[in-house]
Amino acid sequence: TNSSSTNKNYAVKAGDSLWAIANSYGISVANLKRWNSLSSDIIFVGQKLKVANSNNSNPQNASNSSSANNNSKHSSSTQQYAVKAGDSLWAIANQHGLTVTQLKNLNSLGSDTIYVGQVLKIATSSVAPKTSSNSDHATYTVKAGDSLWQLAVKSGLTVTQIKANNHLTSDIIYVGQQLKL
């Protein structure tokens, strides 16, 4: 327990998540993790969490000033994505033109564990696939054993970008197929 009157504490209950706690107090998950020195999203019943910054008794203002500081350092803005059943960091990152590392860094994630209902920040400057003229695309002939994921890693693109460049509606490719990378 903290002796400071400006710190508010919350005792974790069964079924709680960092997102739910942060949301109920109007703070960001990133601030909640930072204020409690958490390196992962794992919390346990009975754990005491600070839900207000010791330097500011109004958690909403602390969250907003943090966002303002981040926006002044980075011109890109973010949108939110709610995790659905079956999602993975890789799938979410790939869907939004990010790498898993970028997605984890943007959300201060210390592990690859995500949960249904968790809200993740997605950088909007990275959401739009790379745009370029058709002459900028290298042509690649698919070989046995190739996959869109493998080609994306090699080319520095996302699967979504390769599919868009080639007007593909599925992840199926075949030997001899010409792809624009």
Summarize the structure.
This protein is α+β, with helices and mostly antiparallel strands and 181 residues long. It contains eight helices and six strands; from the N terminus they run βααβαβααβαβααβ.
Roughly what percent helix?
Answer: 25-40%
Number of strands: 6
Rg value: 21 Å
CATH superfamily grouping of the largest domain:
LysM domain
> Architecture of the largest domain in CATH?
Roll
- The number of helical elements comes to 8
Task: Please state roughly what percent of the residues sit in beta strands, choosing from under 5%, 5-15%, 15-25%, 25-35%, 35-45% or over 45%.
Answer: 5-15%
Succession of helices and strands: EHHEHEHHEHEHHE
Class based on secondary structure composition and strand pairing:
alpha+beta
Oligomer: single chain
Order of adjacent strands in the largest pleated sheet: 1-2
Largest sheet geometry: 2 strands, antiparallel
What are the segments in which pLDDT stays under 50 over at least 5 consecutive residues?
1-5, 56-75, 126-134
On the 0 to 100 scale, the average pLDDT is 75
| CATH fold description of the largest domain | Membrane-bound Lytic Murein Transglycosylase D, Chain A
Give structural notes.
The protein is an alpha+beta fold and 181 residues long. The chain has three domains: 9-62, LysM domain (Membrane-bound Lytic Murein Transglycosylase D, Chain A), CATH 3.10.350; 75-127, Membrane-bound Lytic Murein Transglycosylase D, Chain A (Roll), CATH 3.10.350.10; 134-180, Membrane-bound Lytic Murein Transglycosylase D, Chain A, CATH 3.10.350. It has helices at residues 18-25, 29-35, 59-73, 89-95, 100-106, 124-127, 148-155, 159-165; strands at 9-11, 48-50, 78-82, 119-123, 139-141, 178-180. The strands form three sheets. The chain has a two-stranded antiparallel ribbon. The longest helix is centred in the middle third of the chain and has 15 residues, at 59-73.
